[in-house]
Amino acid sequence: MARSVISTKTPRCERCRFVPRWCICSGYQTVDCPVQVDVLMHKREQHRPTSTGHLINRLIPGSYHHVFNAMEPPVADEVINPDRTVWILHPRGGPMPTDVAPDNLQVLLLDGNWREATRMAQTVGGWGRLVKLPMTAPSRYWLRKKQDTESYSTIEALLFLLEALGLERPAIMLRQQLELHVYAGLRSRGALQLATNFLATSTLPAAMPDLLAQLHQRRSEGE
User: Fold this and answer.
1) Given a cut of 50, is residue 149 above it in pLDDT?
2) Among 26, 40, 69, 126, which is most buried by a count of CB atoms within 10 Å?
3) CA proximity to 177, closest of 43, 38, 40, 33
4) pLDDT at residue 6 above 50?
5) What is the phi-psi region of residue 163: left when phi exceeds 0, alpha when psi lies from -120 to 50, beta otherwise?
6) CA distances (Å), 9 to each of 12, 14, 19, 51, 164, in order?
7) 179: pLDDT strictly greater than 70
8) 89, 124 in Cβ contact below 8 A?
9) What was the pLDDT predicted at 50?
């Protein structure tokens, strides 16, 4: 886990952003989601291969991506859909309302570390309702050193939202894609034991056995 995943000299897949040996693009499945999903990504997050904000945009058709620069932040008119109720997910928000239908909802996800997300929330907090989700399960995002036990990745925040809204099918599909992303990330770092431990508690062997076999075969073929 000590090795950096960012290297200007390492060739990477333009889509999944992993090295070709661990490219997982063949395993991607689009996720139909009635909620309009917008990712507000801190500028420092743009070039991090581990970013799950990019993963959300790759998987959910119609999701949007906005870069946050404190010197020149986006404006509400460029992001907010006036025909939908807007929730901004943040741990310091209020309880999740129960009177909004998913197809009437726009969720704004703040993609960055805790300090970056807090700064973004201060800037865009007036665009909608700050909402805190009931996030209790352990994080499955093993690619970064978490600041505390309650730190979750951006895609996990979206997963908790989908589950709370009763959107079981898109939540299951999105979770499988997160598991694939994390496993490939661990293997690309050479963290074999950690990856093995992760896979032992993952849905991947049951959900994507053929893809895992292909990934592991590349190693045996020396690719």
Assistant:
1) no
2) 40
3) 33
4) no
5) alpha
6) 9, 14, 11, 19, 42
7) yes
8) no
9) 77
* 95, part of any domain: yes
Instruction: Answer whether residue 3 shows pLDDT above 90.
Output: no
Look at the block and give the residue holding tokens 């299951």.
172
pTM, full prediction? 0.89
| DSSP percent split of the chain into helix, strand, coil, nearest 5 | 45, 15, 40
Among 33-42, 95-104, 112-121, the least confident range? 112-121
Q: Three-class SS of residue 132?
A: strand
Task: Note whether residue 17 is domain-resident.
Answer: no
Helix (H, G, I), strand (E, B) or coil at 89: strand
The separation between the first and the last C-alpha atoms of the chain, rounded to the nearest angstrom, is 22
CA nearest neighbour of 176 among 209, 144, 131, 152: 209
* Beta bridge pairs of residue 38: 64, 108
Total structural domains in the chain?
Answer: 1
Query: What are the residues whose beta carbons fall under 8 Å from the beta carbon of 145, sequence distance 6 or more?
Result: 1
Domain of residue 186 covers 25-220
Q: Is residue 10 part of a domain?
A: no
Task: Determine the Cα–Cα distance for residues 14 and 170; give it in Å rounded to an integer.
Answer: 25
In a domain, 74, yes or no: yes
